From TrEMBL:
<feature type="transmembrane region" description="Helical">
    <location>
        <begin position="23"/>
        <end position="43"/>
    </location>
</feature>
<dbReference type="GO" id="GO:0033214">
    <property type="term" value="P:siderophore-iron import into cell"/>
</dbReference>
<keyword id="KW-0812">Transmembrane</keyword>
<protein>
    <submittedName>
        <fullName>Iron ABC transporter permease</fullName>
    </submittedName>
</protein>
<feature type="transmembrane region" description="Helical">
    <location>
        <begin position="321"/>
        <end position="339"/>
    </location>
</feature>
<dbReference type="GO" id="GO:0022857">
    <property type="term" value="F:transmembrane transporter activity"/>
</dbReference>
<dbReference type="Pfam" id="PF01032">
    <property type="entry name" value="FecCD"/>
</dbReference>
<feature type="transmembrane region" description="Helical">
    <location>
        <begin position="254"/>
        <end position="281"/>
    </location>
</feature>
<feature type="transmembrane region" description="Helical">
    <location>
        <begin position="105"/>
        <end position="126"/>
    </location>
</feature>
<dbReference type="InterPro" id="IPR037294">
    <property type="entry name" value="ABC_BtuC-like"/>
</dbReference>
<feature type="transmembrane region" description="Helical">
    <location>
        <begin position="133"/>
        <end position="151"/>
    </location>
</feature>
<feature type="transmembrane region" description="Helical">
    <location>
        <begin position="214"/>
        <end position="234"/>
    </location>
</feature>
<dbReference type="GO" id="GO:0005886">
    <property type="term" value="C:plasma membrane"/>
</dbReference>
<feature type="transmembrane region" description="Helical">
    <location>
        <begin position="76"/>
        <end position="93"/>
    </location>
</feature>
<keyword id="KW-0813">Transport</keyword>
<dbReference type="InterPro" id="IPR000522">
    <property type="entry name" value="ABC_transptr_permease_BtuC"/>
</dbReference>
<keyword id="KW-1133">Transmembrane helix</keyword>
Length: 347
């Protein structure tokens, strides 16, 4: 009778791609991201030249073009940061729940963060980005725990369909509560509605700096969970037989993804579907090994959100479409495609 080697079975159980192919895709992803960042700085309601861009990077903003570039730089950095956080969080959530439909928006995590923020605005007068961060992370965590608990009830445990339904029902209920808080308060309704759409137009270096510690901790926790998520992909029983503490792995990885979602939502609003679309694309390109999938999801998430922001600025000149609307237009058809193709089965 053969024995299972815990050092090799998780790797053998996933769809593999040759290492040179994976490295090539990483190089391509980095090149695409850098190109999109350059486009984000150069394109918008006002066209700018390379001389204006160079002058802005040197701290000069004497002309309207140079001032526009100065504003676009933190906006681009925020789009990259939030996109990477959401892409990585989505990949981790799908790995933890083994649910192809897992996404911070679909599972109610974003809406939980939104309710926490509006509650803080209305009841406690919160207005600083730092206070938004703490309450958004708390709200995201409570929503994630609640949805997973509801989806785990009954026979079969937390199946993909039950989690998706629990997330949709929870999101609807939380959205109703948000409306109940906001409608009587005209003093906060305008600010909250513009934040709730999801966008990076109001980015500042200060807001990015305040979110970075939370995002950095979530990033490290999620990336270190890659090998354990490979074990979970084999099933709970086999993962436990390989020495993994299944509940601990799920708790730690889930906490990392919630931290990413909460911090990203606090600074940019509840942007949906990035965490759903990106991991599926990444699996097609580099396979299912989470040690490669997680960092690649962060790269593609950053690229997707940056591209969505550029598209939103270009197609509606001189106005702009918030990035949350653009990602919804991309993600909603993809969500329907995943439901029909995969029949909501487990990963």
């Amino acid at each position: 009778m053969t024995t299972l080697d815990p050092r090799t079975v998780p790797d053998a159980a996933v769809v593999r791609r040759p290492v040179p192919v994976r490295l090539l895709w990483f190089v391509v992803a980095i090149a695409v991201l850098l190109s999109l960042m350059a486009a984000s700085v150069a394109l918008g309601s006002r066209s700018v030249g390379w001389s204006d861009i160079l002058a802005a990077f040197q701290g000069v903003d004497d002309t309207m073009e140079q001032a526009a570039v100065t504003k676009r730089i933190p906006r681009t950095l925020l789009a990259v940061t939030v996109g990477a956080a959401l892409g990585l969080a989505g990949a981790v959530m799908q790995g933890v729940t083994r649910n192809p439909l897992a996404d911070p928006g679909i599972l109610g995590v974003n809406m939980g963060a939104s309710l926490a923020v509006v509650t803080g605005m209305v009841m406690f007068g919160l207005s600083s980005p730092t206070s938004y961060l703490w309450v958004a992370i708390l709200g995201a965590a409570l929503a994630a725990v609640f949805v997973y608990a509801i989806g785990s009830l009954g026979r079969g445990g937390a199946t993909p369909l039950k989690l998706a339904l629990a997330g949709a029902a929870t999101s609807a209920a939380l959205a109703s509560l948000i409306s109940a808080f906001v409608l009587p308060r005209n003093d906060v309704a305008g600010n909250f509605r513009s934040w709730q759409i999801g966008g990076v137009g109001g980015a500042t270096y200060d807001s990015i700096r305040q979110a970075l510690p939370f995002l950095a901790v979530g990033l490290v926790v999620c990336l270190l969970s890659g090998r354990a998520l490979n074990s979970l992909a084999l099933g709970d029983d086999l993962a436990a037989g390989l020495g993994e503490r299944v509940a601990v792995v799920r708790g730690v990885a889930g906490a990392g993804s919630v931290l990413l979602c909460g911090a990203a939502t606090a600074v940019a609003g509840p942007i949906g579907f990035v965490g759903l679309v990106v991991p599926h694309v990444c699996r097609l390109l580099i396979g299912l090994d989470h040690r490669w999938l997680l960092p690649f999801s962060a790269l593609l998430g950053a690229s997707l959100l940056t591209a969505a922001d550029v598209v939103g600025r270009v197609v509606a000149r001189p106005a702009e479409i918030d990035v949350g609307i653009v990602t919804a237009l991309i993600g909603a058809p993809f969500f329907i495609y995943i439901v029909r193709r995969q029949k909501v089965r487990e990963l």
